[in-house]
Amino acid sequence: MLRIYEVFVVAGKVFVDHPYQYEAAGIFYDVWAGLFVAAVLFIPYLMLSFLHIKVANIFLHLLHVIVIISYIALLITYSERTTPFDHELFTRKLNDSVETVRQMTTAGYKVYLPFLVFIPLYFVLYYGWIRKAKLSAKAVRMISVTGIIAALLVAFASPSRAWFDTSNGYYLTCNKMMYWMQDSYHFLANQPVAALNKDDPQLQEEITYYQQSQPFTFSSREYPLLRNNKVDDVLGPFFSLQATPPNIVLLVIEGLSSDFSGKHAYATSFTPFLDSLGEHSLTWDNFLSTAPGTFAAHPSIEGSLPYGKRGFSIMNVMPEHLSLTKIMKQNGYKANFMIGFNADFDNMGGFIRMQGTDFLLNAYPSKYREMGIGEEGWSMGYPDDALFERSLTVLDSMQQQRYLSIYHTGTTHMPYLFEQKLQYEKKFDQKIETLHASNAIKKTLRQTKHVLTTFMFSDDCLRKFFADYAKRPEYSNTIFVLTGDHHIGSFPTTGPIDEYHVPFIIYSPLLKRAQRFQSINSHLNIAPSLTNLLVANFQLQQPPTQVHWLGDVLDTAVTFQNKHAMPFMTWSREISDYIYKDFFLGGEQLYQMKPNLLLKAVVNDSIKTHMKKLRNNFMLINAYVCEHNKIFPGGNTLPGEKILLKEYADPADKLIFSQLSDTAIAPDFIIPNTIKYLYVEANGEALLQGKEIDLHPTIRFALIDPKNNGRDYLYWSKRDVATLSKNDFVMGAWNAISVNDLFALDDYKKVKDLVFETAIYTDEVPIKVKLKNWVVRIYGVK
After folding, report:
1. What is the radius of gyration, based on Cα positions, of the chain?
2. Phi, psi (degrees; rounded to nearest 5) at 24
3. What's this model's pTM, rounded to 2 decimal places?
4. Strand 515-517, strand 282-288: pairing
5. Burial code of 622-643, b = ≥16 C-beta within 10 A, e = fewer?
6. 523-539 pLDDT, tens per residue?
């Protein structure tokens, strides 16, 4: 019966021919899973029955209900992501899981319906039929033996991936609980390696292997990624550049996927403007992000950086590193970050600020309206049209200077609410009526209507943005770079690599001609290519002589090929996917990549072994350079020399308990108006009791205008306390925590006695956290 429920909530959402045939085949694996569960529960049930049969029966019913609840939760997750839930439970922070559950419980009554149906149905079937059934001793023995065999052969309780041409067919067929159990077992049995110590002989072997297997000439063993910057300018020949360096506008579109955008969109395109722009641009059809989430986008795009343990930007203290932003600022550019929602989502803003970004858009006048609050209980801030219009107004108010402007849009993120939604739903219906596509695809598109309408709206916002930009005086010397941060999770994928498949377009009035490329590239290739474009064609004041880029420059082959070897970080923050030549390793399954990034499962043990070695080697190098600050020997890559302005130390063990939403944990500091940037370091020890994890206490840094003896919060950043430990945070114990941040102050020069505040903050009260050995250091950067 749960399989029938799955047919209705999942089968129509995925891109696969004959989904119901896969669901029907899956009944065999459901029976196997049921027999396995029965065999596992038999032993504790038998032991309890010797003590008290009623207690044993209650115990068994309780476990069965837990199995039903768990399975329904797995199906709900599968229906949202169109990939089954894996070992993510063991890799996410507890507070992240609590937040996910909290959001689900506020998503309306529909999420509760299957629980309200299937749990009572279980008891109806038991008392109305199963309890009354009379089985012969022979039947009992046969079922028992079958259950034991099912348990002994549990390794085969899911079909082989090699039997399926598409991963969606495989996912539909699997029993979702068995899939989760097997995947979790594999993860726990093969724990990720810890960072090696610099004196460990194995580390030296791994560094040698890494540097020999990459197409670069490395210059250091202490910093394994460091290499001389070979100025290979692959983009310059496509441009008629002016005498002065161009402005760069980098547009990162939330969730933009090649499944529904571009010439080869599998689900047909819902972005007509971007499609037309691509015909007049440099366009890569086979382009990849490095993860299926926002957490990886900006470090990969702007820094070609390693991934850290859970994403580079999520590290409590980011290692010293280079980035496109830092390079351009060192050479006369002003850096802007334009966003319409909370910039600290996945600590994106923390990464952006640490690049020395001059301006971060966070203030919207009252004429702009935020998007609606969804059933999940939150809004995604200001819509894309407001973001684009406000950003151009801000640019007009700035002193004329060449610039790097980075945009990150938000309308196309859950809860997909914007003022013109009804208007675009009508446009969607009209498009579907005239669409030349199979009924199966049309059905899937209709089920994701709430997602696709937002991209139709965002596409029109981009159309107006480019039309408005064309009227600006600097337009003729501007290069626009556009990509998606990742494949949107609310839209079905066609295969494992589709989790990363995003558009990539470079447009400019400076282009000599348009060109479409079929070679495989990724976010890791953007920063090296743009850097070399500037270095090769202009006399920069401080061109980078050494870099740590993971990626090479963009491959401009017009035929389908892949010359990059690179890893991916999955939803579960595990580095388990890898591409090499024309192969893709998804977990333990090897695929061959075809044009348009279609995959075919293959068996090639030598290639698979080599790719696993490359993947494991990267994991070791990644862990070492990130945890030991061995990415870049900059010493201090801040936008200037830092000067200690104030140090506050409190060694006392104190309980911070307050009914207010925030409590200061260091004295207010009045910022001198001669300072261009404020750099802050804070560290100490923190203790949270298990039940307090729901409160999400955070360390908050804020810039405050104290006018009229008030506290007008001009800007603030927040980091969850439980994410600020180098190792996994342990509830109920003391954890060493540390965090740093950087704030540009140019936009606050007119504020008299600008105050910097360090506080504990939570969205719910009371606050309850223990701190000791707390130290805050505040530096000025001129």
Report:
1. 28
2. -65, -40
3. 0.85
4. parallel
5. bbbbbbbebbbeeeebbbeebe
6. 999 999 999 999 999 99
